[in-house]
Amino acid sequence: MLSPLVHVGRVLQHPHWMLSAVLLAFCLVPLPLAAQATSDDMPAVDELPVEDVQTFAEVFERIKRAYVEEVDDRTLLRNAMRGMLNELDPHSAYLDREEFESLRESTQGEFGGVGIEVGMQDGQLTIIAPIDDTPASRAGLQSRDVILRIDDTPTESLSLQEAVTLMRGEPGSDITITILRRGEESPRRVTITREIIRTESVKHELLEEGFGYLRVSQFQSRTGEQVVGALEELTAEGPLDGLVLDLRNNPGGVLQAAVDVADAFLEEGLIVYTEGRLPDTEMRFSAKRETAAPDVPLVVLINGGSASAAEIVAGALQDQRRAVVMGTESFGKGSVQQIMPLGNGEGLKLTTALYFTPEGRSIQAQGIEPDVDVVRGRLEVAEGQDIGVREVDLEGHLRSRNEPRERSEMSERLREDYQLAEALNLLKALNVVGQRNQRD
Q1: What Rg do the C-alpha atoms of the chain give, in angstroms?
Q2: Rounded mean pLDDT, 228-247
Q3: Most confidently modeled of 91-105, 169-183, 412-426?
Q4: What pLDDT digit, counting tens, does each position of 154-195 carry?
Q5: What are the residue ranges spanned by the domains of the chain?
Q6: Hey, what CATH class is 97-108+110-198 in?
């Protein structure tokens, strides 16, 4: 049983290396040496190739001996662990204490930074989505912008966690981000002042009488119950004739929260299922009969910044024929990460499963295709067309009893947001068709 340790140790010529090699080999023992600490239903692990372990140890030794600057063993070993995870996929990572704490703060919904969700795409640090009402969204950063530099640091050599750490900082401090936007030849530099990012994941309002708007900016642990509360407030004055569920630029979050949101609109049926190598990564989530809004006509808005948990909700409602999905193709992140604490206060973020929509579609690198394609834009009157002035446009006009006081403000918002305006128009059309069908 000790032969692997001894064998690895023999390739090392420097006495200092004996201890490092033994420690390394102990961490990399084949399954028989670790059998007592392994669950019976864990998949079999092949014995490690001795030749590759020897090569690893040789590289380690040569760096220690010949690198231009002295590097301690702890740094080299952690860099090796980072490398193992970084090469798996863009979302797996080794987290030191600071990074582990940063991730914990993010899931709790409060941290100091600029307010963007980032990921690695084609080896480049890419914005998945800016978070609503944050410095990043106000500065105009967009989904799929590639971040080239963070202040003076090029991002091409940074891991995802290192980039996130650089962008976090004290509220009130400035950060300059150099981005390259699709369709543009030259990079642009954007200076942003960091703030405490307190993310409210759910907002709601009436677009018009009978037509509600529900915005979910990300999925946190309490998002499901917040959505139910918002639906109760929207229906407090009467039933809804239609609802827009806005998941644009929603980077995802907690899987259970996505299930809870989809469940608010479904009375039965599968919502999502996951598949992985370990038994506990294979899960199925179905809707419960108690449903907050089972019959409200529903349009779901998505775009290229809708990712992960947002795609779960859109895919479930689409497959169950519960909603019309409108907008542009989503981001395509269909993998599940588990956060695994380590005994030293650090941790792993490891991709352990893929998730699938009720009809078995994998979202990974595919995304959700909308039922109705609508690009984002602004409504404008065509040149030469005179739509005239109506009574409602005159300042100080007498209000109708049924006219919402915020109508002019909402009208401007609908002009600015073409996708939202089209979603509202579709809901009105569905409502008219439904009323006619009831009469017939």
Answers
A1: 26
A2: 94
A3: 169-183
A4: 999 888 878 988 998 889 999 999 999 988 999 999 999 999
A5: 3-71, 97-108+110-198, 202-373
A6: mainly beta
What H or E segment, with its residue span, contains residue 106? Answer: helix 97-108
C-alpha 75, offset from chain centre: 30
Instruction: Extract the runs of DSSP E, i.e. beta strands, from 312-346.
Output: 324-327, 335-341
Distance CA 238, CA 211 (A): 11
Q: What does the pLDDT read at residue 31?
A: 36
Per the residue annotation, which of 217, 241, 333, 349 is the catalytic one? 333
- Dihedral over Cα of 359, 372, 323, 116: its sign: positive
Which one is catalytic: 159, 217, 308, 330?
A: 308
Place of tokens 């018009």: 208
- From the list 65, 74, 78, the residue with the least C-alpha distance to 16 is 65
Q: Which of the residue ranges 24-38, 168-182, 302-316, 331-345 would you say has the lowest mean pLDDT?
A: 24-38
Give the CATH architecture of domain 202-373: Alpha-Beta Complex (3.90)
The active-site residue, picked from 319, 330, 335, 417, is 319
- Clarify whether 308 is annotated catalytic: yes
Tokens of 125: 């640090």
Provide the strand spans (E) within 211-365. 211-216, 242-246, 270-276, 283-286, 298-302, 324-327, 335-341, 347-356
Sign of the alpha-carbon torsion through 377, 380, 382, 383: negative
Query: Is 132 a known active-site residue?
Result: no
Q: Is the dihedral of CA 114, 119, 121, 123 positive or negative?
A: positive
Which residues are CB-contacts of 72 (< 8 A; sequence separation ≥ 6)? none
Q: What tens digit of pLDDT does each residue of 343-384 get?
A: 888 999 999 999 999 999 999 989 999 999 998 765 444 444
Say how far residue 286 (Cα) sits from the centre of its chain.
22
User: What is the model's pTM?
Assistant: 0.72
Q: Read off the DSSP letter of residue 110.
A: E
Residue 46 falls in the annotated catalytic set: no
Alpha helices in 183-334 (DSSP H): 223-234, 255-263, 309-319
Measure the CA–CA gap between 3 and 157, rounded to whole angstroms: 38
Q: Quote the crossing angle between the two packed helices 3-10 and 15-27, to the nearest 10°.
A: 140
Which token pair is 230?
């918002």
